[in-house]
Specification:
The complex is a heterodimer of chains A (113) and B (113). Chain A has strands at residues 3-5, 10-14, 19-21, 24-26, 31-38, 45-50, 56-58, 64-68, 73-78, 87-95, 102-103, 107-112. Chain A is an all-beta fold and 113 residues long. Chain A is globular. In chain B, strands 2, 4, 5, 6, 9, 10 and 11 form a seven-stranded mixed beta sheet that branches. Chain B has strands spanning 4-7, 10-13, 19-25, 31-37, 43-49, 56-57, 64-67, 73-78, 87-94, 103-104, 108-112. Classes of the chains: A mainly beta (113), B mainly beta (113). The interface between A and B is medium-sized, with 17 and 23 residues.
Amino acid sequence: AQSVSQHNHHVILSEAASLELGCNYSYGGTVNLFWYVQYPGQHLQLLLKYFSGDPLVKGIKGFEAEFIKSKFSFNLRKPSVQWSDTAEYFCAVWAGNNRKLIWGLGTSLAVNP
Amino acid sequence: NAGVTQTPKFRVLKTGQSMTLLCAQDMNHEYMYWYRQDPGMGLRLIHYSVGEGTTAKGEVPDGYNVSRLKKQNFLLGLESAAPSQTSVYFCASSYGTSRPEQYFGPGTRLTVT
């Protein structure tokens, strides 16, 4: 069965630290990949997406993610986090003929000022 | 352009009561989804629809029913509410297979006592 794994459940960083959140998926075919962000008390918003082409994709608010097909990974990165990046981050995969996204369990990021 | 809207925003039910949550989207999206979000469990798909008049079960459909009589609306019903259905419910929509990124509504916080 297809699945998405987010390795870090809780991450605590200080402002200006660099961020990398891991996401791995299990599916051997073509995939579309997504990162969503959920700020406290809010709904999920699309952060960035990968469909094809350049495996390094840039999203909003200085986030980027790299698709590494050989590792089935789509890790999220930001060079310097801010307090306002405190949120929950979800990785999701659209694969095959599922007609639905497969979601990771999320990573809670807390950034200390 | 309101995007995805949900009503109500908050609701408290007693065990055994029924209610309907309404999701509406004005983006002409084909696909619509209902999720529930509980602490530590990520997003779990309840039901989804790939077009007007169609519905399908997700991973946690028991105790819920849905209807998609109009393309822009997706209703989620609880026939006999149980405390285990206390959760935050999110509706999402997307164009479909060619553009699978989902757009979320603001959520409904439901408490069943």
